[in-house]
Amino acid sequence: MDFTTLPAVINFRRSAAVLLGLLATTALTGPVPAAADEEQAAEPPRVELVLDVSGSMRAADIDGRSRISVAQQAFNDVVDALPEETQLGIRVLGATYKGKDKKVGCQDTQQIVPVGPVDRTRAKAAVATLRPTGFTPVGLALRSAAQDLGTGATTRRIVLITDGEDTCAPPDPCQVARELAAQGTSLVVDTLGLAPDEKVRRQLLCIAAATGGTYTAAQSADELTGRIKQLVERAGDTHTRAPTVVGGADACDSAPLLAPGVYADREAFSEHRYYRVPVRPGQELRASVSMALDRPVNRDYGVLLRATAADGRELVRGADAGSGRADVLSAGLRWSATADDEDAGDDDNATAEPSTPVVEPTTVCLVVSNSFAARPGTAATPGMPVELTIDVVAAAGAPDGPDLGRGWVLLALLTVAGLLTGLIAGLLTRWWVATWREN
After folding, report:
1. What's the pLDDT tens digit per position in 279-317?
2. Nearest-CA neighbor of 292 among 317, 320, 246, 325?
3. pTM recorded for the entire structure
4. Where in the chain is the domain with CATH 2.60.120.380?
5. Three-class SS of residue 48?
6. How much helix, strand and coil, in percent to the nearest 5, is found in the chain?
7. Topology of domain 16-36+245-393, CATH
8. Between 67-81 and 120-128, two packed helices, what is the crossing angle to 10 degrees?
9. Which one, of 369, 370, 361, 386, lies nearest residue 285 by Cα?
10. Fold of the CATH domain 46-237
11. Is 261 in contact with 246 (CB distance < 8 Å)?
12. According to CATH, where is 3.40.50.410 located in the chain?
């Protein structure tokens, strides 16, 4: 998800042979682990552009032109350059209601182009008729845009373009973004701000962070056009199957059994979540976790990933580390199973017949813990986004080296080596002193 993050978050591509082998062997000795979704035929990238058409978009402060005219030009340029396989939709907010009734104005959002294959003429005509009009129901527009894009196995993308903060909360747009991410909708929201306003910047940053998207301040027509094109193209580049949604447990014995893959979950502040992975002798477990900081938290926080035996014995732990992004924290670990670890597996596994011995896997519990604490006024729900990556590979043995013996043999060898070194050093010293005196 990386190692990487939600929002993000770093994905290992697993080997199909390893996965099938693990499933086949565990079928003989216990329940089959839940597997991350297999790769299937790719769906076309789906993107919806959400444009703010509220009254403030009349302001003429971008290259001497109004914000709405700059946005319309950017839309036209993007539509002309849109890849053929992309399915595009357009939704507006604040575009039709001219009155003062806030209750009515805050319901003002419409989809003017449905998500589907691009009809360039229709899309341009729909955007050209827009005139800045009403309120700014960003939260409602985001929720509606998510419904427009529908559900599926791959990531959908919303590109929000606005010059102001939401004037209609509730629903709060940042909280809406967190709810959409928590629902496992595989949705990324990228935000573009058209006004140099600190409140707007903070709100758009929060929306983007909650879904693993990006925030950009566009101060010119070229910047806006270039950034929208980049985001739409990225929808095709990052158009991959999303992590499988899984729910960790509060104890090892009730934790879900997982196969190699990439998984998404949510974890509350200062919580411990458990997952189980079967590992056979001669195999090595590799795991990483990334947590995205999608809301303000207190200082001095961390993420801990531990591997424990079924009876609670700690096998190894991985320290947290930065990922190169200030809003993602990651941790990873490696652990190899040996024949001595077999007893750490589940006690209820069936005993194999003597004539057909089966080496039962060790059940390793992965424990994801965090020390996050919400700042006053910060919502504690839904939990923080978690991406868990699991792989099981053949254990890498330690490199061979010279056999120096063990115990008394090693001690004797070191003693002889020391005596010889001292003797040679003494002879060289006597020779050097004798030579110095003669001169």
Report:
1. 988 899 999 998 877 777 777 778 899 999 988 899 999
2. 325
3. 0.57
4. 16-36+245-393
5. strand
6. 30, 25, 40
7. Jelly Rolls (2.60.120)
8. 180
9. 361
10. Rossmann fold (3.40.50)
11. no
12. 46-237
